[in-house]
């Protein structure tokens, strides 16, 4: 499809371009950055982006300990502990003695933390829906299929190395 500006659509460029072409990866990176920035336009205060990563991990893996959380985040233990300290001060996280080991603490989202995450997700979904509603149903399907394939490829890359796609252990 040719746009109003006489350019080919991103889908046509992708179909017409060899997938190993460096411009395709660059264009994909730019598009993902634009999508990421759009999502960040929905304010997440009082939690920082690093704190949000912790909340999302705890939402998926309730009751994990600090060591496991650090592995999921690819972060050093002191950084993870400080993040949890701040989240506990906000009332989003609580540490509970483990039933399995007296030396471990389990991390749990509080009701306030769950409500915060649900409200933030609802606002982000509404913001994204405003944009995707301007797309055709077929374009939305192609976008979803492509993002699912990208997520699957990232998971395979991360699973193979045991670390993030860049291979680095990050600070939170």
UniProtKB/TrEMBL annotation:
Residues 1-22 are annotated as: Disordered. Gene3D superfamilies: Winged helix-like DNA-binding domain superfamily/Winged helix DNA-binding domain. This is MarR family transcriptional regulator. Keywords: DNA-binding, Transcription, Transcription regulation. Residues 21-152 form the HTH marR-type domain. It comes from the Bacteria. InterPro entries: HTH_MarR-typ, MarR/SlyA-like, Tscrpt_reg_MarR-type_CS, WH-like_DNA-bd_sf, WH_DNA-bd_sf. Pfam families: MarR. One of its GO terms (biological process) is response to stress. SUPFAM superfamilies: Winged helix' DNA-binding domain. PANTHER family: REGULATORY PROTEIN MARR (PTHR33164:SF103), TRANSCRIPTIONAL REGULATOR, MARR FAMILY (PTHR33164).
């Amino acid at each position: 499809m040719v746009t109003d500006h006489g350019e080919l659509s991103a889908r046509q460029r992708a179909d017409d371009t060899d997938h190993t072409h460096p411009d395709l990866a660059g264009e994909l990176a730019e598009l993902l950055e634009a999508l990421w920035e759009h999502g960040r336009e929905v304010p997440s205060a009082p939690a920082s982006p690093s704190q949000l990563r912790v909340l999302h991990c705890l939402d998926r893996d309730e009751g994990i300990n600090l060591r496991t959380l650090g592995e999921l985040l690819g972060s050093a233990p002191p950084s993870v502990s400080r993040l949890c300290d701040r989240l506990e001060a906000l009332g989003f996280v609580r540490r509970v003695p483990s039933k399995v080991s007296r030396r471990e603490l389990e991390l749990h989202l509080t009701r306030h933390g769950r409500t915060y995450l649900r409200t933030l997700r609802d606002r982000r979904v509404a913001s994204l829906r405003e944009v995707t509603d301007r797309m055709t149903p077929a374009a939305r399907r192609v976008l979803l299929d492509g993002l699912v394939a990208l997520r699957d490829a990232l998971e395979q890359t991360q699973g193979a190395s045991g670390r993030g796609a860049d291979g680095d252990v990050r600070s939170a």
